[in-house]
Amino acid sequence: MIKHLIKMVWNRKRVNFLMTLEIFISFLVLFAVILFAVYYTDNYRQPLGFEYRNVWNVSIDRSGIDNKGETVGPEIPPSHLLSNVRDFDEVEDAAGVSLAPYSLSNSNSVIEHNGRTIWYGFNRVTDSFKDVMGLTIVAGKWFGPEDDGANWQPVVINQRLARDMFGSEDPVGKNFPTGNDTDITRVIGVITDFRQDGEYAGLDNYLFFRNDINGAEASPLQNIVVHVRPGTTAAFEEKLIERLQATARDWTFDIEPLTSMREQVSQIRLIPLIAAGVVAGFLMIMVALGLVGVLWLNVTQRTKEIGLRRAKGATARKIHTQILGELVVIASFGLMLGIIVVVQIPILDVISFISARVYAYSLSISVLLIYILTLLCGLYPSRLATRVQPAEALHYE
Amino acid sequence: MAGTNLAVNEDLKSDTDLQKENIMIQLDGVEKVYRTDRIETVALTNINLSVKEGEFISIMGPSGSGKSTLLNVIGLLDVPTAGSLELSGKPVTSYKDRHLARIRNEEIGFIFQTFHLINDLSVVDNVEIPLLYRKMSNSERRKRALRALDRVGLNSRVHHFPSQLSGGQQQRVAIARAIAGNPRVLLADEPTGNLDSQMGDEILEILKDLNREEKTTVVMVTHDPRQAEKTERIVRLFDGRQVN
Ligand SMILES: Nc1ncnc2c1ncn2[C@@H]1O[C@H](COP(=O)(O)OP(=O)(O)O)[C@@H](O)[C@H]1O
Ligand SMILES: [Mg+2]
């Protein structure tokens, strides 16, 4: 019977071509949307590695209002700024960080290590950053005063980078090959993770440099993350800004809770996906209506054939199965073409940030959805086919 | 029982039980009324007919007299409004789809005036159609279809498509399809109606061969008195009634 179905579909290929094409295109569109939806969902379910609640970010613009990138006014020592912030009762702790979480600005580096290319994001933070953000140390230790004056540069990396770089070996105490031969960089600790771009971003390798604000090479603060006491209201923003402004009157300070920055990042990620989802949804509806129409027409054009089959011993059920079966064959042809196109992407490594697992998962979901969609479209026309009365269908004048 | 049938049965002059066993088709008081919203068409009135196993009869009558309807009732394509039908001694009591489908498939081979071949399928695939609705391996199906095509002299055309054949050849494919499942009854509705007389004669010869060699019971509707003459018995219909 399957052989017969395939033969029927193949011999009617001119009629079925359009349906195959429609299914092929809808599959591609659906797959693209589902791939990103699955990718985001998968990312979302991974631990973030830090706590964003009750953390505010103060961004510091040292260039003044009319200045073009150059620092205005006197350079205020970072430690001075931080202690000003810590003075408030509302503040539990504060830390300096070059690139704030959810700011969507990143620094990345790439190194060749044992013949492999390893990417990682990096950031430069002060010693209190771990406590402000609630980072979790899994091996070694975080930065502290004991790192002052070491003749190597201490770094803390995330587990993924540790695995990528050192495999199963203990990374703590190992030199980290930054590609810079003059300075020694040494791993002193490993954290679970720090997903700076938030929940929807892919999983990345990450590395922290220490900003030794008391040392000779202290770098100016670009952001201060402030852990406020639970229940602190927005009114405190004013007070904090006032104090900072008084400390460095030529600089500009801007405060935003991480919850609201997180919200914005979510929107930036999700709005295009939702828009694409809506477009894909409409496309599916159009395709579905088209399919129902074509199938309906097919059935009415084939009443003689259906009547003949009934006269030759087909039950109504067999007719039903045949119409749906042909549809499944047509859908399978379309899907086969679609899958051939879609598997080129991982083969050619076009979007390497999406894992094979997410890829396979999205592929299965899309294939399943297309089959469900086509079967739904076939439900009514195939019912119609079962109502064909052989005597009437074969009647001629 | 109507007079015609009795007359035929008298010829046998043998044991009544044996006679009953030999009856292939038996209709008693069959009526068929088509009801649509406004019109009611009486297509058959009180049809009593018995056809013996291995008999070749023809049904004649003017257009619209109910010949096709009668054939459809016998072939279980249509349900009689009243009356009873027996096929090879078994009364058809259930008009459930599965039951009908099985009898149509195993007992009956239909042949139509306009052939009703599926244009999207090759000759041999067309012939396999009734066998698709039986449990059978693909190779067995193919074997039987080829044998049936051989029977009608078309083994050189198995992979052609219907549109590549002449009318006579198409009807031979339809006959092959009708006999592929070895039915005991062939029902032919004006099988030569669309063919010229020479092709028509060829088709009739094939049907007669099948009747003679396989003992297949044949009921043929025809317009052509010359062809009807060549059958064992003629049943005449007028306005849905049997006439003598
Ligand atoms: N499906 C139908 N619905 C209504 N009337 C029908 C139907 N089929 C046949 N008839 C009517 O029944 C009568 C007999 O038709 P038919 O058996 O086709 O005649 P014949 O084959 O002898 O030309 C005709 O009057 C025809 O119009
Ligand atoms: Mg007719």
Description:
The complex is a heterodimer of chains A (397) and B (244). Chain A is α+β, with helices and mostly antiparallel strands. Chain A has 2 domains: 2-45 and 269-396, no CATH class; 63-250, no CATH class. Chain A has helices at 2-11, 13-44, 78-86, 129-133, 159-166, 235-247, 258-301, 303-311, 316-348, 356-386, 390-393; strands spanning 55-61, 91-97, 108-113, 116-125, 137-140, 153-158, 185-191, 206-210, 223-228, 252-257. In chain A, the strands form 2 sheets. A 6-stranded mixed beta sheet of chain A has the order 3-4-8-6-7-5, with helices on one face. A 4-stranded antiparallel beta sheet of chain A has the order 2-9-1-10. The longest helix of chain A is centred in the last third of the chain and has 44 residues, at 258-301. The radius of gyration of chain A is 31 Å and the shape is elongated. Chain A starts with a helix and ends with a helix. The model of chain A has no long low-confidence stretch (mean pLDDT 92). By secondary structure, chain B is an alpha/beta fold. Chain B has one domain: Rossmann fold (3-Layer(aba) Sandwich), CATH 3.40.50. In chain B, 39% of the residues lie in helices and 25% in strands. In chain B, strands 6-7-8-3-9-10 form a 6-stranded mixed beta sheet, sandwiched between helices. In chain B, strands 2-1-4-5 form a 4-stranded antiparallel beta sheet. In chain B, helix 5 packs across helix 6 (138-151), helix 5 runs parallel beside helix 7 (167-179) and helix 7 (167-179) runs parallel beside helix 8 (197-214). The longest helix of chain B has 18 residues, at 197-214. The chains are: A alpha+beta (397), B alpha/beta (244). Chain A binds chain B through residues 1, 3-4, 7-8, 11-12, 304-305, 307-318, 390-391, 394-396, and chain B through 68, 72, 75, 77-78, 97-98, 101-102, 104-106, 110, 112-114, 116, 118, 120-121, 125, 128-130, 132-134, 138, 177, 181. Magnesium ion binds at residues 67-68, 189 of chain B.
